[in-house]
Design a protein that fits this description.
3-methyladenine DNA Glycosylase, Chain A, 8-stranded antiparallel sheet, about 10% helix, DNA-binding
Length: about 200
Amino acid sequence: MMNFHRTAQIVEPNWLARPSTEVSPDLVGCILVRQFGDGSQLRSMIVETEAYGPEDPACHAYRRRTPRNEAMFGSAGRTYVYLIYGLYYCLNVVTDLDDVPSAVLIRALQLESVPSWVTPPTPAKSARLAAGPGKLCNVLQIDRSFNAQVLAPCQPLWLEHRPPDFVPDLVQTTRIGLTKGADLPWRWYLNNCPAVSKL
DNA sequence: TCTAAGATGGCA
DNA sequence: GCCATCTTAGAA
């Protein structure tokens, strides 16, 4: 039977149950879907990610398990959301096996459309509305209540695979804004993408 | 209890 | 380069 209408390929938890350094580059090009309370959806492509994991001095769970980093020890396919600098939320996708603290930070998105509630100052800036981990949570209206939630359809957030014919041109570099583990090349982004947070 | 630092971002 | 803003982890 011919299948012209491709159904969305949902990212399943078991696909995420790998080390974050493997999942992180694979998530670039995937689609993050945000469904709001009124049923409306905002779709966007992940264009920049960073991996955090065990034996990683920059990982929030490097020292020990605490109430804040608890979600990182949870099962793959859930979120880890935390507040940084008392101002911004950051969204992570939990990866790897249970009890292994591991997550992928979503650092930048390319929005499919500009939501009605944001008023971009200039057209040029609208491309960068979600260029940064704090900015994207702002646009998608993600706060701490999103921590440790399941990523699945009918939830506020879920992931869809990139089309099989889309092979992203990836750049791998060091992570942004760290004082520890700054030498590890665990950041990936889409080459020549205006929505990436930093070059 | 107290305090310094933090996976940021906007503006001068 | 400076700073807003506040939770959290780690020290005392």
